[in-house]
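Same chain as my last thread, 124 residues:
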Amino acid sequence: MAESVPPTSWIDPDRPREFTQSGREVAFFLPVVCTDRGQHKRRLLTVARRELDGSGGMSSALEWFAPPMGAEAEPRSLIGRDSYIFACPSCSRKPQINRVKWWNLVDEAGRARLRELDLSLLPF
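reply #2:
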């Protein structure tokens, strides 16, 4: 399945330009946090980014989240075949989000110009 490609018209022409370490221009960075619905201190789990060419990525893989591993995912391993699995070290939340739905959610948050995405506020 192909991931959605964000239109470059999202980009505010007056915004400061941002780049990845490899030099690719970024449409937006989106901190992904958990607060357990305000029950614990804000915990940064990853930073999702969407690049202008439509590709995306996140930091802290296998520390606070596991990316989809396809056929390599082992049963009962906390690594999904088609889903991202997040693990907050401050609470017991371990949301699992389908890969396509995740990037659609990130894109919607980017369009809405959210400052961050709190996973604990999502209806899982």
